[in-house]
Each structure stands twice: as C-alpha cells, then as structure tokens.
Design brief:
α10 crosses α12 and α11 crosses α12. Helix content is 39%, strand content 21%. The protein is built from 20 helices and 19 strands. Bound molecules: adenosine-5'-triphosphate. The site of adenosine-5'-triphosphate (ATP) has 12 residues, from β1 and β2. One of its GO terms (molecular function) is ATP binding.
C-alpha cells in the first residue's frame, strides 16, 4: 500500500467520532492491507515495532523538529517549527502546514508515482533508523527523517509520518479498537483475538494469523520464552472484599520491589523484563545466576526483585531502584546493593502455558520449579480474617509492604487490573505523579533544578497538582537534573517547561481543593520519596484517583 493511501485512511478515521464506525474503518484498512497488514496493525496505534520489541526509534521531539525544519526548505528554521508547534502542540499538523508537494516545501523532491513512498518503505527506513547507535546516530536519524519527509506528496503523509515517529497518531485508535477491527475484518470472535494478543502482545502477528488461519490459528498462538507479556495488576481492596467474593483468600506477602517477568530457556539464556516489557537482564546478574542454578526446564515466572540486607531482610524500594535498569557499573553496584528474586506466579512451565490454571496450581508448580527456596512467595489460603491479619502483622514486622489477597481459583490475565488480585496496603497512599515543569534552585543549589511541578494524568493530558522541593538530597537533585534535561521544552527565567517523561512517587499530608493548580487540587506538604524508574507517564496516577483519595479523606 502506498503511504499516501494509508494517510488518507488515517485522515478519515481521525474525522470519525463514533467508536463503531472507527472500528469499521480500521477493519476496512486491514482487509485492504495485503502484505502490509502486520505493519499497519501497529502504525494505526502509532507504533512501529511490537510493544515487547527491543527496537526503539528513540526519536525525541527535538530531532523530529529538526528534520521537519530541514525538509520544509531553506527559509524555515527550527525556531519557526517551534513557534508553530507552540500554537497547536501537534508536530503532525506543523509538518503538514509547510507547502507539502509544492516547489519549495516538503515533498519538493518527489517526481510522480515512481518515487511515491510505500508503507513498506516507511517501515524499512524507520527500522534502519532504530538500528542507528553511537556517535553520529542523531545526525543519521535526522537525515533519514528528512529523506522521508521530502518524499511526502500530500500533507496527510507529512502529518502522520511526523506523528508516527513520535509514537502518537491521534486518530482515536487504541488497542481495543485494533482488537475489534481484526475480529471484524477477518470474521473471528473478539475473544479469540483478545486471548492471542494477551499471550503475544504482537498486533501484527495476530492480525496476519486471523486473516490466514482464522480462529484455529489464533488458538495456536502461545506464550514464547523471550517474548514478554503484560503483567497482571491488582486493585485496592480489603479482607472483607476478598472473603465476600471468594470461598477463601490466597494471602501473600506484598514485596516492596520492582516487578519482573523472568524467562528461562534451559538450552539458551535467562532474560528478565521490567513491567514495561523492557529487557533489564544485564542489570540483574544475580537473578539470572539464581534462575540458571535452580531451573532446569523452560519457564516464565512473575515476581518482584527486592533489595535485601545481609540477613536477607527486605530493604526499601529506593534501594532496588539503584540496581534496576542500570547499564553501567553493574558489578560495582552489586557489591553495594544485594538484590534477590521473589517469585509469586508461574505462567509457563516445560512447554505448557498455565495461564488458565487456577492460581493455587500455578503456585504449586512455581514452588516445585524453584525447589521451595526463599525465592517462592509464602502463601496461605484462609477464610479467617484473624488469621489473615496475623499473617499481615508478621509480613509488616518482617519489613514487607503489606499483603496481597488473591482469588485462589483465578486464571492469570495479562494486562488486566481485575478483582482477582487485591492489594491491601496499610500505609497512607502515596501518589505517582509526572514532572511537567521545574524551577531553578536558589543559593547553593542555583546550578540545578530545585522545585518540581507535579501533574496527574487526565483523560487526554496532565493537570498540575503541586510542587515538590523537599525530601531530595544533593545526589538525588543531580540525578533528577540529568533525567529531566533531555525533556526540557522551554525556559523562561526561573521556570522551566518539561515534557512528561519522569514519574515521581510523592508523599503528602493532605489533598486540598485549590484554585492554584489546573487540577483544582493541591497537595499539602508534598515530599519526594522516589523516582519511579519503572513507570512511564502513562502509568502515573490519574486525577480521578486524586479525587477519590480526596473524598476518602474528608
Ligand atoms: P500498580 O497497581 O499500577 O502496579 P504500584 O506499582 O504502585 O501500582 P501497588 O499499587 O503497590 O503497585 O501494588 C501492585 C504491585 O505490587 C504489583 O504490580 C507488583 O509489582 C507488586 N507485588 C508485590 N508483591 C506481590 C505479590 N505477592 N503478588 C502480586 N504483586 C505483588
């Protein structure tokens, strides 16, 4: 398919307000996609590669602006692009606003159909771009984008190319719409598509399989060692909630660590993935060594990596973060912070997917695989609130965060935040908020950012809720400075505008109504607790949760 055709369809989809019609248009696109189906199943969501893929474009707004400015002709500079962007906030709209296909603007180098961009070419070029690394790679990336943009013949091509590169198509097509469209286009049940997506996370594979092999083919898609799936998540809940819903509760320690999914291939390697499906194997050599020593069959385990002291007692979450995702000095840090695996679930063992097995059976398999070592979560099944409370008191006394309550019969549902797993945290709830701005420090700290503007997620953006300046030492300030620097959008005197990228966990004494911030709320005495390295802005807390917490406290 020509990229211009895809862009024209995307324009139509973007203009369609009704969900059902949107799904129908996406289904038409898939039905007409030919060989490009796998790529288009991702492009409509603003993705170039499958979510689990290690390949990333790593193109930020700055590089994209540079490429648009260059492609827009000799009279346009990055400032001009930035000015237009400031008005609309949409890089696609800005790219499309430059005389596309004209004599001097974007598309000036096209000369008819022979040179027209195809979907395949866009994908291949972007795949090449993702492979660029090392010094000079930024220039290479800008050059590739420039090359693609100059070949756009329509403003729609420029619009969706620029948006695709930044990972946001803004055409109202999310994972659910793609799932439904695959079902509609190839006449297979939505449930079959949903299950295949849960175990593969690969929209391209699922769409192509639905088309070529129908429902039987979808049923043949299984978990694969080395291909992570989304983690099952928990809701907040009480012992009463659990015992009202189930005949008894499976009660486990709630570890204060970082979520991991461990994939072990007895003939190959062990790989460890974060909750965002990022490969963090290199940062956690002792977890890999442990798995290699204890597992002698193919397995996918779900659990947490925790930091422990010499006696094996848990250390606070902040300590794990010093190890998690670390790319340099791993061996040196290994001396300073000891980490261990605490596994609580088993998704696959010895060639069998266990997702549909009851939780207790999966936990038994887990204990067998890991020889009942300390790495297996302790689990009791109880319908007695007193027994559960005693278990919780022991967990807290041992330094854990609290307990998890789980339905003993429940299946493992990747990516779902259902009622089968309840988290019971006795502490005051903290908030995970996105940094959207900052202010320079004062006095001794004038060289670093010192105050951070925090925002909660809303339906389509972020709403500010407070500023945090306490709880950070010099090292943490310097670290935050480094993390935020690449995301600075604009600076005006003391204040700095920052694009959403970094999530902070903050404590506070109270949530108040307040006209000061756009959310309508303010935090009293906010204090910094940790950088939530393991969360993207999309995982940050929502304004709806802030509202619920505010209500609960009054
Ligand atoms: P989220 O609910 O989005 O995961 P969060 O990261 O702040 O939010 P919590 O709300 O504290 O996490 O609780 C859920 C998390 O607890 C799980 O994602 C998992 O990482 C962790 N966890 C610790 N121990 C267990 C356990 N035994 N079973 C399941 N999850 C556990």
């Amino acid at each position: 398919m020509q990229f211009a055709e895809f862009a024209a369809r995307a324009t139509e989809i973007e203009a369609e307000p009704a969900d059902l019609e949107t799904v129908a248009l996406v289904a038409d696109l898939f039905a007409d996609a030919g060989d490009d189906l796998p790529v288009l199943a991702r492009f409509v969501q603003g993705r170039v590669f499958p979510a689990y893929s290690e390949r990333k474009l790593d193109v930020g707004p700055r590089l994209c602006r540079e490429a648009v400015a260059r492609a827009a002709g000799p009279n346009v500079d990055a400032d001009d692009v930035e000015d237009r962007l400031a008005e609309t906030g949409d890089i696609g709209g800005v790219a499309a606003s430059y005389d596309v296909g004209g004599q001097r603007g974007l598309g000036a180098f096209t000369d008819g159909d022979d040179d027209a961009l195809s979907v395949r070419e866009v994908y291949d070029e972007l795949a090449g771009l993702a492979a660029a690394a090392g010094s000079g790679s930024e220039d290479e990336k800008v050059a590739t984008l420039f090359g693609l943009l100059t070949r756009c013949e329509t403003d729609a091509e420029a619009r969706y190319l620029a948006r695709l590169v930044l990972g946001e198509m803004r055409i109202g097509v999310g994972e659910g719409a793609v799932r439904d469209a695959v079902a509609e286009a190839f006449d297979v049940p939505i449930e079959a598509v949903a299950r295949a997506l849960q175990v593969s996370n690969d929209y391209g594979l699922v769409a192509a399989t639905a088309r070529e092999r129908g429902v039987d083919g979808l049923a043949d898609i299984h978990l694969e060692i080395g291909r992570p799936v989304k983690a099952m998540l928990a809701q907040a809940g009480s012992v009463a909630d659990a015992l009202d819903s189930w005949r008894a509760a499976a009660v486990e320690v709630k570890f204060d660590g970082a979520r991991v999914q461990l994939h072990h291939d007895p003939a190959g390697e062990t790989r460890v993935f974060s909750r965002n499906m990022e490969d963090v194997t290199a940062a956690l050599p002792e977890v890999v060594e442990f798995a290699d020593a204890h597992l002698d069959t193919a397995a996918i385990l779900d659990g947490e990596v925790v930091a422990v002291d010499e006696a094996g007692a848990p250390l606070p979450f902040q300590e794990v973060l010093r190890r998690f995702r670390r790319k340099h000095d791993v061996e040196r840090m290994r001396e300073e912070v000891r980490v261990e695996l605490r596994a609580f679930d088993c998704l696959h063992a010895a060639g069998d997917d266990l997702l549909d097995d009851p939780l207790l059976a999966r936990h038994e398999t887990l204990a067998d695989l890991l020889d009942d070592t300390d790495a297996v979560s302790e689990l009791i099944v109880s319908d007695d609130p007193e027994e559960i409370e005693a278990f919780e008191a022991r967990a807290l006394a041992a330094g854990h965060e609290g307990v998890m309550l789980k339905d003993p019969e429940s299946a493992y549902t990747p990516g779902k935040r259902g009622k089968q797993w309840l988290k019971r945290k006795p502490d005051v709830e903290t908030l995970d908020l996105v940094v959207t701005g900052a202010e320079w420090g004062e006095g001794r700290r004038a060289e670093t950012l010192g105050t951070f503007l925090l925002s909660a997620r809303t339906g389509d953006g972020y709403a500010t809720i407070g500023k945090v300046a306490t709880g950070l030492d010099d090292e943490e300030l310097a670290d935050l400075d480094d993390r935020l620097a690449p995301h600075v959008r604009d600076e005006d005197g003391q204040t700095v505008d920052i694009e959403p990228a970094v999530v902070l966990e903050v404590g506070y004494e109270e949530i108040q109504r307040s006209p000061t911030y756009s959310s309508g709320y303010a935090l009293r005495f906010p204090r910094f607790l940790a950088v939530r390295d393991d969360k993207d802005p999309a995982d940050a807390d929502t304004l709806a949760r802030v509202e619920r917490l505010a209500e609960k406290q009054s």
